[in-house]
Write a structure and sequence with these properties.
161 residues, mainly alpha, 6 helices
Length: 161
């Protein structure tokens, strides 16, 4: 019974600390990993002359990889074993990365000429920057909602102390 009360209290504390500042920090963390993977995937796919679908798949896979890797780094540094750290990273980042990737890749695909732009074309870089900015703006409320329910980066937050 005492454990249940403690768990409920811990959830209440997490929900009470769900601020826009926390959501912004969580989204910036997500954006960092996503941007690294997204840019790397787009650069590799574009440089190799790949079509839209393989380039997007590579960018998405790398965005998830780097997003999870950044979370894993911090959680492992806190002394959590790899198996538990993987569970934390998956729980903390999956929805956030998925929303971010859906939005930013949607912007890139829908922007006329963006997927055909070469690396030397300013359109490539401008659209990528705009897409990541829009993804950040739309993912921040998702992270706030998750943190307020004790999920997402609220799970990771306990390892930052």
């Amino acid at each position: 019974m005492q454990h249940e009360a403690h768990a409920a209290h811990a959830h209440h504390e997490i929900a009470a600390t769900s601020t826009w500042a926390m959501a912004i920090r969580a989204t910036l963390h997500c954006l960092t990993g996503c941007a690294i993977g997204e840019v790397l995937g787009m650069v590799i796919g574009t440089a190799l002359g790949w079509s839209t679908v393989p380039t997007l798949i590579l960018a998405i896979v790398l965005a998830f990889f780097f997003g999870y890797a950044l979370t894993l780094r911090g959680v492992l540094k806190a002394g959590v074993d790899l198996r538990a750290a993987l569970k934390v990273a998956l729980a903390a980042d999956t929805l956030s990365i998925a929303v971010m990737e859906l939005v930013d890749n949607g912007v890139i695909v829908l922007w006329p000429g963006a997927m055909d732009a070469e690396l030397a074309d300013p359109l490539f870089w401008w659209v990528l920057a705009i897409a990541l900015t829009v993804a950040f703006v739309l993912t921040t409320p998702v992270n706030k909602w998750m943190i307020g329910r004790g999920k997402g980066h609220a799970v990771v937050h306990q390892y930052h102390h």
